[in-house]
Amino acid sequence: MDHVPRGSAPETAAPGIVPDVAPQLRALRRRRGLTLEAAAQRAGLSPAHLSRLETGNRQPSLPMLLALARIYGTTVAELLGETPPERDPVVRADRSDPVEADGWIYRQAGGAGRAMQCLRVHVPYATRADIVRVHPGEEWLHVLEGQVRLALGETVHVLDPGDSAHFDSLTPHRIGAVGRAGAELLFVHTLMQSPAAELCLGGGTPHSR
């Protein structure tokens, strides 16, 4: 799961930005005492790109939200302003509205504020522009529909419906759908709330494969 690298095509404002993300991103960065430049470097973004996210002039993708959540020591749910006053162990289907960002469509499938973040994700077709991700923690995915191409280091796996993968996310990895119709999967990742979380995407720009 990847985000837009430096040097990509010119960015334009995206309509229908995910509610509350822009002010939350700015508030959480300031809470961590990070400058715009420092946070952008740790996320593998340019300061201008992060600034656009914080002002609502650029729509964040799911991978960007995951990366920034780890850097700020929080959850995607908090970034989306969805943290409930009390933890409910049950996530009802009718309360999990889909959110779309840059081709990724996802629903919360777990509670907010937990060490494991659980999502149901529609994965778009993989392209050569996708970025390899490296960060502390573990990831688990289970394919529900379609086929998923999972690159782990130098090895590429094609997963069919019913297949799963569980891996150390310090292994360089990239996830995308094999077919242009995309794929559906369950996705779980651990939230690293420690200084090591600042290594989420490595020191600087992620490397394309």
What does it look like?
- With 209 residues, this protein is of the alpha+beta class.
- The chain is built from 5 helices and 9 strands; from the N terminus they run αααααβββββββββ.
- The strands form 2 sheets. The protein has a 6-stranded antiparallel beta sheet with strand order 1-2-3-9-4-7, with no helix packed on it. It has a 3-stranded antiparallel beta sheet with strand order 6-5-8, with no helix packed on it.
- A hairpin with a 2-residue loop joins strand 5 and strand 6.
| DSSP summary: helix tally | 5
Order of helices and strands: HHHHHEEEEEEEEE
Mean pLDDT, rounded to whole units? 75
Q: What would you call the quaternary organization?
A: single chain
* Biggest beta sheet summary: 6 strands, antiparallel
Strand content: 15-25%
What structural class do helix, strand and pairing data support?
alpha+beta
Protein topology:
Layout lengths: L20 H11 L4 H8 L3 H9 L6 H11 L3 H4 L19 E3 L2 E5 L7 E8 L14 E8 L2 E5 L2 E5 L4 E5 L4 E5 L5 E8 L19
Antiparallel strand pairs: 1-2, 2-3, 3-9, 4-7, 4-9, 5-6, 5-8
GO molecular function: DNA binding; DNA-binding transcription factor activity
GO cellular component, one term: cytosol
Protein name: DNA-binding protein
Quick recap of the structure?
The chain has five helices and nine strands; from the N terminus they run αααααβββββββββ. It is α+β, with helices and mostly antiparallel strands and about 210 residues long.
Record keyword descriptors for this entry.
alpha+beta; TransReg_Diox_bact_type; DNA binding; RmlC_Cupin_sf; DNA-binding protein; disordered N terminus; globular; three-stranded antiparallel sheet; 209 residues
